[in-house]
Amino acid sequence: VVVLEVAGALCLLAVRPTPVRRDLPATNGHPLRSATMDLVEGFRYMTRTPWLLGTLLFGSMLVLVLTGPIEVLIPFVVKDIPGGGPGAHAIVLAAFGAGGAVGALTMASTRLPRRYLTVMMLMWGVGSIPLVVVGFADSIVLIVVAVFAVGVLFEAPTVLWGTLLQRRVPPHLLGRVSSLDFFVSLVFMPLSMAVAGPVALAVGLVPAFVLAGTVPIVVALVVIVVARMPRDEIANPLDVQMESGHSPSVGGATQPQTAQ
Question: Which tens digits make up the pLDDT trace of 209-227?
Fold first, then answer.
């Protein structure tokens, strides 16, 4: 752990400083009122930006559908398999983390896709399908492989999402939008873990994994169409901003509204 902490600190020192891109206005208003106004402004921006609203709504559903099965239900599947136990469950969780690391590093090392919104949504949607395999699995190895695939396809588009926020959201709204993103995760993670058990008792363990594995891809396809993501991503290419040397605050930051 100490070695990892030192390595992380060295990596942080190697990061180039980013100049402040926002001049904070002088205000004598109450901090609570100011925070409320910031939140309202971020929410308004989200509701009038189809790709952002669609992604955050889909992300809410994804966290709700995936967290419970992975954290709560997989231990019951592992327990019923010969050789299953705490050690086997630890290997499964490690496989999920390793898959996430591989997916994130791979995405960070490759060129941004031209259809970045579509790729991001489809990877998240397809990434849940291996959970169907977990529901029917009769060996620990099969579960490990399936969960590794989930980790890869869950974390890879997360890197794309972070880049997307930096390049498509105006700098003065980035903190508000990021707060909404974290709010989604913090709210729906515990809720998913709370309802996973009752849902599995009501419909059965295998059907619960089938639902968790198939619902996200269907919702992803609907969001892609309803939010008109294919047209939006072509109208606002990310690679053009990178090659031209434009600041992330320029270019796609003010253009999401044109794709409504």
Answer: 999 999 999 999 999 999 9
